[in-house]
Specification:
Keywords: Isomerase, Membrane, Transmembrane, Transmembrane helix. The chain has 276 residues and is an alpha+beta fold. The protein has two domains: 61 residues; 200 residues, Cyclophilin, CATH 2.40.100.10. The protein is built from three helices and twelve strands. Strand 4 and strand 5 form a beta hairpin.
């Protein structure tokens, strides 16, 4: 082989090596691009998962099927919608809660009271049974006398079986921390049935968390899924049509559980003892 042929062969070898090297570089570049794309996709997927999880948490934070006192519906939702016929505009809710000392249940034991709950939609009259629920009635009476319920929005309405209630009692519309005391369950029905007109205490999952929030049943409700039940302390004797009117207007935003679409607030509560 001549020197010229050897040089030609070396050039071919060099060209093949350069071609292979260029191919490797192109493959490496392509792999880097793929890695960047995959990383970007993973970032997008991760962001989507985080957002979905957060929304799931928000959903879990919404009011449950039970009339618990931990409902976090804001009071502002009850003051922006237009009132229904027979109602005036709901007042602005308080910005703070007046703390009240826990009353002795002996102040209500064996007694019957009449509570006139004046709302922006009219009066709702409730007979309070201190014989069956002395601590609950004593608390309600004490809060009423302290003007605790003044201008407080009824922050929750439920419109889906098995729960049909209007929930009230928290001056801050569901975000308050209560009057400064709590107590246990009294007079909960063993069968879990809450007939229309029943007035009972709302609470959290803690049976000893009764405080200020209460609910009015506007249609027979079955809460037998909650073994401990809720303290029944009164019965509506007048003004049930007001609660039914609010219920008929539905929930703000078209849901089945949340702030009433028709705002209703307690302006004041007057309580008198019924003499034998």
């Amino acid at each position: 082989m001549t020197r010229e042929q050897e040089r030609a062969r070396e050039r071919r070898r060099a060209q093949k090596f350069e071609a292979k090297q260029a191919l490797r570089e192109r493959e490496a570049a392509r792999n880097r691009q793929v890695a960047v794309v995959v990383a970007a996709v993973l970032v997008v997927v991760a962001a989507f998962v985080i957002l979905t999880t957060q929304l799931g948490k928000d959903d879990k934070a919404t009011p449950s099927a039970e009339p618990t006192g931990s409902t976090q519906t804001t009071a502002s939702a009850t003051t922006t919608a237009a009132p229904v016929a027979g109602c005036t505009a709901a007042p602005a809710p308080p910005t703070s809660i007046t703390k009240v000392a826990k009353p002795d249940k002996a102040t209500a034991a064996g007694k019957t009271f009449t509570a006139v709950v004046t709302t922006n939609c009219g009066d709702i009259t409730i007979q309070l049974d201190g014989a069956k629920a002395p601590q609950t009635v004593a608390s309600f009476v004490a809060l009423a006398k302290a003007s605790y319920f003044g201008d407080s929005p009824c922050h929750r309405i439920t419109t889906q079986d098995p729960l049909f209630v209007l929930q009230c009692g928290d001056p801050l519309g569901g975000s308050g921390t209560g009057p400064g005391y709590t107590y246990g369950i009294e007079n909960a029905p063993k069968d879990g049935k809450y007939p229309k007109g029943t007035v009972a205490m709302a609470r959290t999952n803690d049976p000893n968390s009764n405080a200020d929030q209460f609910f009015i049943v506007y249609k027979d409700s079955d809460l037998s899924s909650v073994p401990e039940g809720y303290s029944i302390f009164g019965t509506v004797t007048g003004g049930m049509d007001i609660v039914e009117k609010i219920a008929a207007a539905g929930v703000s935003g078209g849901a089945t559980d949340g702030a009433p679409a028709a705002p209703i607030s307690i302006l004041k509560v007057a309580v008198t003892e019924k003499k034998a």
